[in-house]
Amino acid sequence: xxxxxxxxxxxxxxxxxxxxxxxxxxxxxxxxxxxxxxxxxxxxxxxxxxxxxxxxxxxxxxxxxxxxxxxxxxxxxxxxxxxxxxxxxxxxxxxxxxxxxxxxxxxxxxxxxxxxxxxxxxxxxxxxxxxxxxxxxxxxxxxxxxxxxxxxxxxxxxxxxxxxxxxxxxxxxxxxxxxxxxxxxxxxxxxxxxxxxxxxxxxxxxxxxxxxxxxxxxxxxxxxxxxxxxxxxxxxxxxxxxxxxxxxxxxxxxxxxxxxxxxxxxxxxxxxxxxxxxxxxxxxxxxxxxxxxxxxxxxxxxxxxxxxxxxxxxxxxxxxxxxxxxxxxxxxxxxxxxxxxxxxxxxxxxxxxxxxxxxxxxxxxxxxxxxxxxxxxxxxxxxxxxxxxxxxxxxxxxxxxx
Length: 402
Description:
The protein is mainly alpha-helical. 71% of the residues lie in helices and 0% in strands. The protein has 2 domains: 10-149, Tetratricopeptide repeat domain (Serine Threonine Protein Phosphatase 5, Tetratricopeptide repeat, Alpha Horseshoe), CATH 1.25.40.10; 196-373, Serine Threonine Protein Phosphatase 5, Tetratricopeptide repeat (Alpha Horseshoe), CATH 1.25.40.10. The longest helix is centred in the middle third of the chain and has 25 residues, at 170-194. The protein is elongated.
């Protein structure tokens, strides 16, 4: 899977390649005028004009390495990578120490698919450059080159390093996500080849289908795992979770069948906090508060830092008329995740029940801010392990279906 890296901004590479005025001391006014015109056009992204200016300078001053360096940059920006390679090699021959020219040459070779030739320059740019811009550009191209050479493990290593160096860079996140997906796909293909009928292959396939939203195929794979290994931990939970997602997608109530799967999971593995949580949440929503509390207790017994379970338990306690105990659960949830608007909404309810108007208003202010900053949470997001807590339109009341 090979993608085109975004071209670097010309202004950045002008700095990287050096920006001294080549002809400021020249007696030839034409050379100075053409140089200044080329620099201005390049900085303004008028690459056709820059190309004409530098090609004229090439004819007038064929022995100037910097002119070929600039021409290489212009050709690179115009995606004339073959011409860029020729110009940059000429620049390096005339002046081997011209800053970063070898790295731009490597990027041009990479764009032409000449990955083996590009590797030394890209590895230098990513591994040794102290310039953050150049290191980032080199890393993106190096990741691409390793992928093109089927050196997937090294591509993954570069992706991990890029994510660490540039954790909020959208392009880096996008490109590295593709590497992760490709590596996962190749690993799954290998698993299919070495063990096509194994529980691991079917489980991996089920997870892949589930992540893609193909719940029917995911269920088929998970059930095949149970056919091969009926006592395999975690699978009944995955079946139950997938049933909930499928029901949400198709607007069908799959809760009773999902509940049976969670029950079977807990019979096999009482420590599965996710399964216990899902049962607790199911009973909470139906107003069976005693049962809900029992299963939330079970989830928190084995996973004390389970934020959603603390929130669910708080919901039960609020509905049962125990705001003091609910407050303790909500404070714990807030400490685990201070950016969850559901926590602060329920905190406002707890403070209201306790007669603490100041606490209620402070919690509501935080809730409003978080709600404005974030989109509404889905009941069950594709990436979530469990059903997320949400603001109840009609809170369950104690005594219903107990």
